[in-house]
Amino acid sequence: MTFENTLEFAKKLDSQDQLHKYQDEFIFPQVNGKKVIYFTGNSLGLQPKRTKAYVDEVMNDWANLAVEGHFYSEKPWWDYHERFANPLSKIVGALPSEVTVMNTLTVNLHLLMVSFYRPTKTRYKIICEEKAFPSDQYMFQSQVHFHSRSIGIKPEDAIVEIKRREGEHNIRLEDVLAKIEEVGNELALVLIGGVNYYTGQVFDMKTITAAGHKAGAYVGWDLAHAAGNVKLELHDWNVDFAAWCSYKYMNSGPGNASGCFIHEKHHNNAELPRFAGWWGHNKERRFKMEPTFDPIHGADGWQISNLPVLSLAPYLASVDMFDEIGMDALLQKRDTITSYLEFILHEIDKEVASSFEIITPSNPSERASQLSVLLHGEGRSLFDYLMKNGVITDWREPNVIRLAPVPLYTSYEDMYEFGQILKAGILDKANL
């Protein structure tokens, strides 16, 4: 497609967009009396309007039924989470039995590492990406410390970061594969973010998973920035485990429940350790209060406590919307609108003295709904200008803004208007 940096062209794209109507499904903050251009769905998605009805339903059942709501509400609380199995399995490419919801992301990664990080004195290393999200880094360090007394390992020896090459912003696939081969028989676990939060790079999860397995390691993925954003085939890729948060691209609300994937090949493995709790116990016998843990078959068997239904309600509202639309339609718009934003940035770059360097890969197969932009010659004042003029974006030191055009609620007209505001912010500064 040949793009044009005009309002008329942007409106034409919106008129052809089958998802354009979903903008009206979301509540936008307002700045200066106008709805914002929202680029931070990679941090916290907007609130769907339908969310309130899902939450109100739980609140009303609680008021009218109290404890009986567990069994007699329209969506009984004791199996509320089971409503996620089918729609989530489509989003992440899994069998319904392989997905569940519980806890929050880093908590779930810790719990999954109980099962899948089982270091020995000879096989104990973890491969992750350089500049992983800090929570993952803290998790790795604390997991290694947890095992250090029994097998004498230290984080600086056990944690192997795959580095970017000098002068490059993204990690090359060949370097990931080479590092896996180099670590070899010492490798216990590969655990990488499916989409790097800083650059927006999408990793080749299928190829990396196969390489990790060839080396004899377990392979898991932190899908915080991938779930609801990229094409996932976790079952077919033979991924051992994965977890994701629900409040970014899936719009479930701040700090909300996390999703988990455990491949079916592990469901019958009685030797695989896990931390147990009564909500993961045999569902039909759960209320018999038996003393010995008998896990539910499937990912639900990794649950520990009864689930926070009030938190799950907003997530279910969003998951139902995803099921209504389908990932294929989302991904098609994602690619087009991200490319249009890239075009707009290049066009504005020609009209101002500053220069923009997009550090997210230019290959659509290696990126998703995010462009991370180095603003050469610009500083925090430009970010502040954007925010004051209704563009909600994200600043990362030293001078990177992250722009996430979420296909559910951003429009092509938003992309055009952003370009005009960006240009005005740079020119206003130059004219001072």
Which class of secondary structure composition applies to the elements?
A: alpha/beta
Instruction: Supply the CATH superfamily name of the largest domain.
Output: Type I PLP-dependent aspartate aminotransferase-like (Major domain)
Given as residue ranges, the uncertain stretches (5+ residues, pLDDT < 50) are none
Shape: globular
Total count of helical runs of at least 4 residues: 13
Tell me the span between the first and last alpha carbons: 38 Å
> What amount of the residues lies in strands?
5-15%
> How many discrete domains?
2
CATH topology of the largest domain: Aspartate Aminotransferase, domain 2
CATH class of the largest domain: Alpha Beta
Q: What is the string of SSEs from the N terminus onward?
A: HEEEEEHHHEHEHHEHEHEEEHHEEHEEEH
Task: Tell me what the CATH architecture of the largest domain is.
Answer: 3-Layer(aba) Sandwich
Q: Give the total of beta strands.
A: 17
The mean pLDDT is 95
Question: Which range best describes the helical content: under 10%, 10-25%, 25-40%, 40-55%, 55-70% or over 70%?
Answer: 25-40%
